[in-house]
Amino acid sequence: MSRNAKINTLLLLVVAALAVLPLALGLGEGREEPFAGADAQAEAAITELRPDYEPWFTPLYEPPSGEVESALFALQAALGAGVLAYYFGVRRGRRQGAAAAAAIGSGTPGDTRAEG
Predict the structure, then answer these.
(1) Which residues of 19-46 are buried (b: 16+ CB within 10 A; e: fewer)?
(2) Confidence (pLDDT) at 107
(3) How many domains does the chain have?
(4) Are 25 and 51 within one domain?
(5) Could you report the per-residue pLDDT of 51-98, keeping only the tens digit for each?
(6) What is the pLDDT of residues 20-35, one digit of tens each?
(7) CB 28, CB 35: distance < 8 Å
(8) How far apart are alpha carbons 1 and 9 in whole angstroms?
(9) Is residue 112 part of a domain?
(10) Residue 116 maps to a domain
(11) Which of 58, 75, 91 is the last residue of a domain?
(12) Which residues of 61-86 are buried (b: 16+ CB within 10 A; e: fewer)?
């Protein structure tokens, strides 16, 4: 097994552990919403500390349900992953192209310099 394959396998195991361990250890038990987001937890804490608090802004769009909100969040994550994958792919392609051009040397096609 190559070094890259070992690293990829290790990273995959770490990601799987991060996804499974909170569920297996029951870290969300005993709560009304066990895996609520930070926004919801902050709102609950503010409401508990200062019940008369008025938010400064209101959301531009309020999803009709939690499922739609989750779907929009997943779509945002997928678009972000796509942009990152595109960036890294272009970067790798440019690096490979530069390496191929360097390997060919100065005799690249389209070189019109006169040899003396």
Answers:
(1) eeeeeeeeeeeeeeeeeeeeeeeeeeee
(2) 60
(3) 2
(4) yes
(5) 898 888 888 888 898 889 889 999 999 999 999 999 999 999 999 999
(6) 988 788 776 666 666 6
(7) yes
(8) 10
(9) no
(10) no
(11) 58
(12) eeeeeeeeeeeeeeeeeeeeeeeeee
